Amino acid sequence: MIEITLPDGSSRTFQKGVTAHEIALSISEGLARKVLSAKVDDDIYDLNMPIHKNAHVKLLTWEDAEGKATFWHSSAHIMAEAIEILYPGTKFGIGPDIENGFYYDIDLGENVISSDDFPAIENKIMDLVRQGQNFERSEISKKEALKYYNEKQDPYKIELINELEDGTISLYKTGGFVDLCRGPHLMDTTPIKAFKLLNVAGAYWRGDENRKQLTRIYGISFPKKKDLDAYLVFLEEAKKRDHRKIGKELQLFTFSSTVGSGLPLWLPKGTELRLNLENFLKQAQKASGYVQVMTPHIGLKELFTVSGHYEKYGQDSFRPISTPAEGEEFLLKPMNCPHHCEIFKSQQHSYKDLPVRYAEFGTVYRYEQSGELHGLTRVRGFTQDDAHIFCRPDQLKDEFKGVIDIIFHIFKALEFENFEAQISLRDTENKEKYIGTDENWERSEKAIIEACQEKGLKATVVKGEAAFYGPKLDFMVKDAIGRKWQLGTIQVDYNLPERFELEYVGSDNQKHRPVMIHRAPFGSMERFVAVLIEHCAGKFPLWLTPEQVAILPISEKFVDYSKKVLSLLQNSDIRAYIDDRNEKTGRKIRDTELKRVPYMLIVGLKEEETETVSVRKQGAGDAGQMPINKFIETLKTEINTLIKFNK
RNA sequence: GCCACUGUAGCUCAGUUGGCCAGAGCAGCUGAUUUGUAAUCAGCGGGUCGGGGGUUCGAAUCCCUCCAGUGGCUCCA
Predict the structure, then answer these.
(1) Strand nucleotide closest to residue A373 (CA to C1')
(2) Which domains does chain A have, with CATH numbers?
(3) Angle CA(A511)–CA(A515)–CA(A521) in degrees, nearest 5?
(4) CA of A631 to C1' of B42 (A)
(5) Using CB atoms within 10 A as the burial measure, which of A186, A193, A215, A366 is most buried?
(6) pLDDT tens digit string along A130-145?
């Protein structure tokens, strides 16, 4: 007999070799129907896998991430089975579950699959699913496994098997399809009720550009049809939030194939938005002791040889620009720090002057492969809200805290609640990969961790993710469709001060090397605006939005009064305009709503006579009539509370 | 860059067994209307069907090529 402890702490005794399915049945039949796989101590088991030891067992359902993983992983097998039937001779790579669904990488030989073929494959899949096929596990020797796949002539599986230890190899069989797989899997296909193939893409075998490109098919499946419907609705909603779509609708930015791909053109309203963001940050930076600098868009190749960027990234960058007479070579700057290092170097610095904080909205250019470009999130020319802090090692922690304050300020004013922070430390097993002394690394890593703790920032700590030149703290947010984007970053750098031989004079009258911090709370203006658009679906906060108030005269008789209202608003720095088109009020309201202008002021005879405006709040409808001054005061209060930076 | 897909008016889209001067809605322009909380009415203008080449009596439609975009892969200082 063995003792099984359940998550609620209770324990029961079972025959040795009991399965998780039997355990579930002993609790209730309903549970047994819902359970997908089981966590036995630290391993995930198939439901019909015998348990031979005393263990903690958690029965996993669709509600558990691991349960979903089992469900999707099994779905991937069924998809593969269907493909093998429809496209005989297909070779199979890997087919894992992912965050939302699963994929399978396959080599179709001469065949091609496009999304047009999805319905046929989906039908075949549902055929197989309805047969209630079992997942049958078998454990075989490496030799047998190799023999099987040699006969099947599947080079990918052979490669995978060769990397496995003998004695740990298992196969899973559903219908006529046998797959090399560690498991776990569902007992059978009955829980799968809805299946959808999502897209098809090329994917290099094992992520290696030099190896063969396989066809990757993404899919998702659900235990209920209505879950699939809800997911498809979610995808539709996400599409509506796409920053490329909203950016076009709200006339924020555009691209021109004549200018070049990946080179965004900011339209007047987008520029207004961006400048508002920049000024918002500048204000916080000024209050935090930053000074603005400006540098040109190019620099001698030599500058980037000194910084080391040319050696590391030169081959994958825009080619140098050369002068006609002298043949000097310049590079478009891929980052601002080398220029800032030269600014630091142009003057003597005393320890008393540190930290020095140079800030610049610096536009940089990086070559991205054409297939990588994506709206404003991946471009070839973009502006970083960059700053470089040159400080003494003992000042690192305070500087980190200062930057965290600014980032919190931004996230708060823009209502980003779901962000993640990650501290990246070096891999202490491979210290030779990093530049800088042990002492410095330990000191700066400690400074980051303590700064986060003292600021109440919950950050995950990942070893081995640091850059070679220093540890860092990154901020990530998710866009509308759940894709993660890195926005803000704070990075310690021991490398550039060394390469540029930066110095300050210490209290001991000796020369010392400062530490450098790169930091960009937005990351890049382009990417940040993109994520912001998707985050708020184009309904920007009042303080930020390009057009805050639309004045809607009832008829052209009230345009003069509208102009008076407009100038009062403008005198109070409120961004407003008059919609004096020859249209009915309903029409003006509709168009203004679609433009996502936060406030509408409807003015007609009764407003003109009483020096008032009728306020309508975007999305909320009529908010009543009030004196102009009262409206202005309310608005100003609403704006100022959000953008004020308090340390 | 690679794989798959897409490209018709400013925008969203219809138009393929190849066949009369290529269509709609919105937007734009002109006029009428003087309007009260999510689309007033009428008229008009607008397209080398992404570019180039080819097949054909005939190409938006078929083929080749280039460009741009979409979804991924790889990378991201």
Answers:
(1) B69
(2) 2-61 (3.10.20.30), 68-237 (3.30.980.10), 253-295+334-536 (3.30.930.10), 298-332 (no CATH), 549-643 (3.40.50.800)
(3) 150
(4) 40
(5) A186
(6) 998 999 998 888 888 8
